[in-house]
Amino acid sequence: MREHHPALGIDYGEARIGIAATDPSGILAHPVESIHLASTEPLARIGALIRQKNIRTLVLGLPVRLDGTEGTAAAKVRLFGNRLQTAFPEIPLLYIDEFLTTATAQEKLRQAGKKAKNQRPVIDQAAAVEILNNWMETLEGPASWTLPPDL
Q: Most distant CA pair in the chain: distance in Å?
């Protein structure tokens, strides 16, 4: 599965985008940064990270409802995904259900003694780590990630 790595995990939000990356072997995912949309153009920053880390796969968290349908939040993520595909057509973009990634990230931070208050950027990065961890698990078992609908 090395051909997929390093991968960049993306937790898209309207104020910030949490970013995580895998190591080149795809053994571990680690937080990278939070992109603050008020002050940073996200595609330019993601492009710089792609070049810096030699990224081979983009993994974008998709908020799917419990019943499996997509709502307005998923539509916003797919619009951002379309922008990513246009900007970086040479890099595969995969969507993976981000169900409970933020809650899991918050719980892990709490267990590590970190308080969630005023920690939103850290939580966004930790959620991106969870997105990558979930995706890496799918590489070892049945594929549950989806390609964009236009492919």
A: 43
What percent of the chain is modeled with pLDDT above 90?
50
CA distances 20 to 23, 30, 66, 68, Å, are 10, 5, 25, 25
Instruction: Say how many C-beta atoms besides its own lie within 10 A of residue 137's C-beta.
Output: 11
pLDDT (tens digit per residue) in 45-79: 999 999 999 999 999 999 887 787 878 889 999 99
Separation CA 42–CA 130 (nearest Å): 20
**Residue with tokens 């104020």, as numbered in its chain:** 15
User: Which amino acid is located at 64 in the chain?
Assistant: V
Cβ(17)–Cβ(124) below 8 Å: yes
